[in-house]
Task: inverse folding
């Protein structure tokens, strides 16, 4: 699902996003609370009306068996906001203080100390009118070690109880669905503890998010934690993996049993000139595209490719005209939706393993498969290297493309 | 190209100078054509070949964009320029994503509203600016680029120096000679072997830049040279034309250099008279903005146009305000304008909110009035006053979803009258069919508070929505002009309405100045100033070339 941190998909209007076949976007309660603020949202009649979005506020890329038609806004505490971009976050993490009461931070706008409690975060989301709401969690960077991780995990469980209580009392429990956020850092034992406690509360939560990842941890650790959570979480509750985003990450997570994910990568990279294709990302700022009259991807149904926008034209305007970011954003969102849509179809048709193999062969080709993907998919019985004996495997994150960032 | 551009004035008999209605049609050699463009009208400006802030689907859904003007200089960063390599029958349209059946494209060398200093033009070239620096452009290169790109209209190269000071007689003479020679070069026959033209007629619809600076005599001399019958070598060069004007589609005035020269002369005169430079006067009743500068401007334009019959299209680049547009229609009979202030407004976060004729009433959500009683042309949505303003963008236009009673027309832009898409991509067979098949529905307008929010959070869609809205407002403005002119006492009524417009709306553009201040403050807050980004613009290409591919 694309991320609309500020109640807008980067550069696109809600109608443009809808035309791409995307019917859910994600907002960030934290940001909407600061700006425009609850008063304005209330006056506007909720977040949907404020941003002119008539569908759902959170895309649910899901297994067909759990086809959610829900609306979600995500509240997250501070450190997991790295996907939101912008200066607010830098100043945020600096001034944040987590206490048992809630998250205290200096407003990046006026410097005033602002307290976000679990209770308040829930009532904000009630005001906004989201259909899926998230608990407030105490999240530490995934690189943090030591007793702070355990403390954050335990606190997240306590905060879940406070969120559940507020939510149940509000009378909105049957129209809005509360998701718990599984924490526990990179420590499998803490994750297990957290999972166990949160699964106990299954009857009072509508779904589970897997939080505290994608903060720079080793990919090999990342997928093992995802798998650990996905294996334990109840089958009849959707699992939402927070803040991941490369195409290969999405597919691996789906294979491990994740239903939903949010993702800023397609929109953020678009602004830097990186267009995603089935044959890997291409960097349109490179001069090799300057006289290339082909569209990004001839087979792509997005407005950019269908209207014949050439790589040469995009190269000419990239980073200098906002229209370039719009064009590549439209393409990248459709790319991501195609990858996930294809995954859904493959799952329905029972051809998901082959889908994965084809995708990885095209996407990573001769450059080599990321080793962690090979290992992760082996753990669920899909061998990417099966029938591809010449394929190269590279360690590390595996990202190899033309990046400028 | 070899397209037929025709311009007709309605009625066909009009005075040399004065308001006029007209109609433009265009039929290309391949049979494609555009719908009639009624004049007076405007053209959308482009930056690097795109209408600023608009994706192709937004250009498509903005009916106000009929004629787009493409400055070519950004493409000189790389030689040969990439659009000249574009294959297919309508290369410029194809490369830039305009629709041949909807859009007329004119090609000019330089960005007409660029006021930056630039090295002087030479004997056989003009200086142009691109992100990699200054590029020389010769008349023969220009001709070959135009042949390859096939715009519907090409503006001939001219030597129209952008100078702060008065030009010497000698410099003016040089400018006239060069401009005439470069025009003759463009109008000369094209070798059919090179470009596949079987006919010997020149393949361009040419607009010529009326040069001559601030000397009425010089301007007239340039114009007269265009209607003179040519002989001998001069005639051979443009054969089969007898006179240069025969090959000309219309006339262009570039206001940036012209206004600069007028101001330089005023300052100079004042200095000689030992009086301080004049501030443009504004009378107590705010009506008479027909100050000295405007009178000089009108006289200079008339000098340029006097040798010609009134039948050809007249274009002005870089008008500074709708007031100026109205006066030029009234006093001269200008047909087409670009309107850089419309695009500038979208850059700055201004939602335009004005109408011609002036609405009979104003509401509390109308733009604010200044001390002298004049009303702003729009809303500076950066201002915190709009943070909780749930009005639609313009008080003088209705939204399609909220057609109130009263005189307000509906603003068709996608900010005031958004409509859900008529089709949705279906990327999986498991797609929710109710969603995929959902029919287009007119949606409520975007509110000022939302655009304010988007501006303060640096969301680019704020500028897209404002760009579409502002283009629609200026389109309605011209529509209003044509309706008044087409009425029973057209000219008389028009003159009255122009007075009323000038008395109502602020011509000093205070709202733009305030928005500029707010804009730079937000940019500063952002921690990465505008200058830094400008610098990034300058170095962008170097970075690109050093990244291994
Ligand atoms: Zn595409
Ligand atoms: Zn509008």
Result:
């Amino acid at each position: 699902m694309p991320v609309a941190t500020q109640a807008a998909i980067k550069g696109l209007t809600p109608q443009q996003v809808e035309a791409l076949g995307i019917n859910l976007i994600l907002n960030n309660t934290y940001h909407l609370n600061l700006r425009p603020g609850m008063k304005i949202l209330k006056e506007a009649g909720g977040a949907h009306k404020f941003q002119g979005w008539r569908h759902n506020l959170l895309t649910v890329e899901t297994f067909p068996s759990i086809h959610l038609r829900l609306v979600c806004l995500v509240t997250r505490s501070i450190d997991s906001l790295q996907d939101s971009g912008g200066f607010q976050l830098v100043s945020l993490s600096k001034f944040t203080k987590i206490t048992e009461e809630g998250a205290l931070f200096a407003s990046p706008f006026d410097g005033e100390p602002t307290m976000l409690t679990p209770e308040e975060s829930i009532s904000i989301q009630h005001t906004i009118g989201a259909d899926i709401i998230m608990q407030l969690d105490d999240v530490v960077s995934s690189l943090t070690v030591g007793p702070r991780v355990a403390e954050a995990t335990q606190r997240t469980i306590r905060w879940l109880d406070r969120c559940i209580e507020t939510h149940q009392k509000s009378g909105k429990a049957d129209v809005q669905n509360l998701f718990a956020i599984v924490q526990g850092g990179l420590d499998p034992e803490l994750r297990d503890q957290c999972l166990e406690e949160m699964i106990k509360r299954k009857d009072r939560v509508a779904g589970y998010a897997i939080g505290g990842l994608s903060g720079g941890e080793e990919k090999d650790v990342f997928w093992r934690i995802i798998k650990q959570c996905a294996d334990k979480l109840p089958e009849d509750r959707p699992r939402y993996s927070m803040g991941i985003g490369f195409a290969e990450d999405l597919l691996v997570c789906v294979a491990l049993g994740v239903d939903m994910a949010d993702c800023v990568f397609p929109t953020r990279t678009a602004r830097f000139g990186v267009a995603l294709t089935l044959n890997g990302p291409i960097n349109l700022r490179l001069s090799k595209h300057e006289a290339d009259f082909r569209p990004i991807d001839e087979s792509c149904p997005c407005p950019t490719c269908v209207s014949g926008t050439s790589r040469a034209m995009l190269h000419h305007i990239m980073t200098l005209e906002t229209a370039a970011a719009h064009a590549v954003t439209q393409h990248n969102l459709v790319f991501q939706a195609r990858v996930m849509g294809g995954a859904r179809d493959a799952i329905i048709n029972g051809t998901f393993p082959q889908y994965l193999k084809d995708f990885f062969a095209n996407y990573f080709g001769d450059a080599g498969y990321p080793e962690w993907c090979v290992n992760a998919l082996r753990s669920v019985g899909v061998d990417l290297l099966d029938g591809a004996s010449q394929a190269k495997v590279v360690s590390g994150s595996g990202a190899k493309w033309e990046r400028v960032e | 190209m070899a397209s037929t551009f025709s311009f007709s004035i309605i009625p066909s008999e009009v005075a040399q100078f004065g308001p006029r209605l007209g109609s433009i049609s265009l039929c290309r050699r391949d049979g494609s054509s555009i719908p009639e463009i009624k004049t007076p009208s405007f053209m959308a400006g482009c930056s690097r070949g795109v209408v600023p802030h608009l994706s192709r689907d937004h250009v498509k859904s903005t009916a106000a964009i009929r004629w787009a003007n493409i400055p070519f200089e950004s493409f000189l960063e790389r030689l040969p320029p990439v659009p000249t390599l574009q294959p297919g029958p309508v290369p410029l349209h194809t490369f830039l994503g305009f629709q041949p059946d909807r859009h007329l494209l004119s090609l000019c060398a330089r960005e007409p509203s660029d006021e930056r200093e630039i090295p002087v033009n030479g004997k056989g070239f003009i200086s142009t600016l691109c992100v990699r620096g200054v590029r020389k452009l010769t008349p023969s290169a220009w001709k070959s680029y135009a042949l390859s790109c096939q715009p519907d209209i090409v503006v001939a190269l001219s030597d129209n120096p952008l100078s702060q000071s008065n030009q010497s007689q000698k410099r003016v003479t040089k400018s006239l000679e060069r401009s005439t020679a470069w025009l003759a070069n463009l109008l000369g026959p094209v070798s059919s072997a090179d470009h596949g033209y079987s006919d010997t007629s020149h393949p361009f619809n040419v607009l010529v830049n009326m040069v001559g600076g601030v000397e009425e005599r010089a301007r007239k001399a340039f114009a007269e040279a265009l209607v003179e019958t040519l002989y001998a070598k001069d005639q051979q060069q443009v054969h089969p034309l007898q006179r240069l004007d025969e090959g000309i589609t219309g006339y262009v005035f570039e206001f940036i250099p012209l206004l600069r020269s007028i101001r330089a002369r005023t300052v100079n005169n004042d200095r000689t008279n030992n009086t301080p430079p004049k501030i443009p006067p504004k009378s107590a009743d705010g009506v008479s903005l027909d100050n000295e500068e405007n009178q000089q401007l009108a006289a200079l334009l008339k000098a340029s146009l006097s040798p010609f019959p009134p039948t050809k299209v007249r274009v002005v680049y870089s008008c500074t305000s709708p007031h100026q547009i109205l006066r030029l229609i009234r006093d001269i009979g200008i047909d087409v304008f670009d309107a850089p202030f419309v695009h500038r407004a979208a850059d700055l976060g201004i939602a335009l909110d004005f109408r011609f004729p002036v609405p009979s009433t104003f509401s509390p959500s109308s733009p604010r009035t200044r001390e002298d009683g004049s009303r702003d042309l729009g809303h500076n949505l950066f201002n915190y006053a709009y943070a909780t303003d749930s009005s639609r963008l313009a008080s003088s236009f209705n939204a399609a979803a909220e057609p109130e009673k009263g005189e307000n027309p509906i603003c068709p832009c996608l900010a005031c009258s958004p409509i859900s898409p008529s089709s949705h991509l279906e990327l999986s067979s498991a797609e929710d069919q109710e969603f995929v098949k959902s029919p287009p529905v007119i949606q409520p307008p975007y509110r000022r508070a939302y655009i304010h929010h988007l501006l303060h959070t640096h969301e680019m869609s704020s500028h897209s929505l404002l760009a579409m809205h502002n283009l629609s407002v200026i389109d309605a403005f011209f529509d209003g002009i044509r309706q008044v002119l087409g009425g029973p006492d057209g000219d008389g009524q028009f003159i009255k309405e122009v007075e009323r417009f000038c008395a109502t709306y602020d011509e000093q553009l205070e709202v733009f100045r305030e928005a500029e201040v707010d804009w730079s403050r937000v940019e500063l807050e952002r921690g990465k100033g505008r200058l830094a980004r400008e610098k990034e613009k300058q170095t962008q290409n170097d970075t690109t070339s050093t990244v291994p591919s």
Observations:
- Residues 60 and 69 of chain A are 8 Å apart (CA to CA).
- The mean pLDDT of chain A is 77.
- The pocket of zinc ion (ligand 2) is lined by residues B 393-394, 397, 411, 413, 415-416, 469, 472 (CB under 6 Å).
